[in-house]
Amino acid sequence: MATTLSTPDAPPPKKASNWPLYIACGLLPVIAIFYWHVIAFVLLAMLPTFVAGFLDRREGKYAAYAVGGFNLSGALPYLFRMLDGSTPGMLGLLDVISSPWPWLVILGASAIGWMIYYAVPILVLRYQAIRDRQRIKYLRQRQTELVEEWGSEVSPENNASYV
């Protein structure tokens, strides 16, 4: 009669702490009150990213990543201009959004993101096709070398068992 050893029950896993969420929820209204002009600018400037995320039906939302990175890089200089303190609050927001140059930079950067999103897969496929053709050329050359070295019996054209 074998006795089985009973293993003590494993302690339940610790629950994740929610204090970062509480801090974020506590700070978000304060940030929204004092920096509402920054939030408004970010929401307006990042519209192309939101549209890319909405339009991209793929699982990874790669359009949102491509457009979003370039969109953010176009918006950051003007965001920093709003935060440097030279024109406070609403005046800084109006100064940035009323000029056409910030919008040209922001939307131009998003357009570059869209171009990269569409162009990179085509370039990768072309590169792979060129690489595959070179590999086939090398393998055919190697095959002829082997046929010359070992004779025609190693060639698949002469031996039906390879097919």
Describe it for me?
This protein is mainly α and 163 residues long. It has a domain at 27-119. The chain is 72% helix and 0% strand. It has helices at residues 19-34, 36-45, 47-55, 62-83, 89-97, 100-150. It contains 6 helices and no strands. The model has no long low-confidence stretch (mean pLDDT 86). The termini are far apart. Helix 3 packs antiparallel against helix 4 (62-83) and helix 4 (62-83) runs antiparallel to helix 6. It is flat.
| Uncertain stretches of 5 or more adjacent residues | none
End-to-end Cα distance, whole Å, is 62 Å
For the biggest sheet, the summary is:
none
Strand residue percentage: under 5%
The residue-averaged pLDDT reads 86
Short description:
The protein has a domain at 27-119.
Fill in the keyword field for this structure.
single chain; 163 residues; mainly alpha; 72% helix
List the helices and strands and how they pair.
Blueprint: H1 19-34, H2 36-45, H3 47-55, H4 62-83, H5 89-97, H6 100-150
